[in-house]
Write a structure and sequence with these properties.
Layout lengths: L4 H8 L4 E5 L11 E6 L4 H14 L3 E3 L6 E3 L4 E6 L8 E5 L2 E5 L4 H10 L15 H7 L12 E8 L4 E6 L5 E2 L2 E2 L5 E8 L5 H18 L19 H7 L6 E2 L2 E3 L7 E3 L5 H19 L8 E3 L10
Parallel strand pairs: 2-5, 3-5, 4-16
Antiparallel strand pairs: 1-2, 6-7, 7-12, 8-9, 8-12, 10-11, 13-14, 14-15
Helix pairs in contact: 3-5
Length: 308
Amino acid sequence: MPADWKDELSRLLPGVRFDEPLSSHTTFRIGGPADALVEPRDRGELVGLHRFARERGLGVFALGWGSNLLVRDGGIRGIVLRLSGEFERIDFPGAGAVEAGAAARLPTLVMRCAERALSGLEPLVGVPGTFGGALVMNAGTREAEIGSFVREVEVLDLERLEPVRLPAAQLRFSYRSSSLAGRLVLGGRLELPPGDKDVIIGRVRENQSRRKRTQPIHTFNVGSTFKNPPGRFAAQLIEESGLKGRSVGGARVSPLHANFIENERGATAADVLALVEVVRGAVRERFGVELELEMKVVGEAAPGPAQA
């Protein structure tokens, strides 16, 4: 790897930040440094970045809004990208149609659709993150999942470095996953049914209010830590295992909602992962159920005994 790649990248994308703490860019407020963090504003910059990385053998990781993500304490090598600019757009090209860039914030998208009297996304108003991330993980609640409304998704073909549009018929969406995993999503098109604007906005506010009552939305967390096992609720299994409020280092199981792990006191990723194993072990012992992570874990462990 050329030693001067950082100088070359600075000339290509002047806003690049080196050795950037990813704790500043995740909802957990946890994560070691990225070798380089860049925010491409359009397709030209994005393609140029990937061509640069390919020629120099550098990895590229798409961060999104940093929700649903635990970055290990050693950080991420290579280039971390966060889409901006034209990728934040939200457009309404026709009756029921919504087009959005991958970097559009999901709560903003829900509100914009509600203001246009388009229904279906109201349950997603409290889901943190971006539209692109929501598509990849098929974000949803008990009431709705975003994959139900997808008509087309645009991705970057990383071999040819060209945008490709994938119709819904070529995509698969399932519980908290999709066939878009591993793809770089640029944006997508939804089709939503029309409704009464006042009723739709009322449902949005009701969902916001319920989340405030039942979830720790004002603490540093990634939302649901574990997927719900078939026919069960992870939060109920964790609570009945007596784990609400259980801590490891600076991480704790939320006293409000047991499927949330919070960064309560300057937690490290090692703290969170140790607490994850405590929770898994207790639920396995009591119920014989193996909990599967919903949050994604990326990056390298920090050197030393803390993460040995």
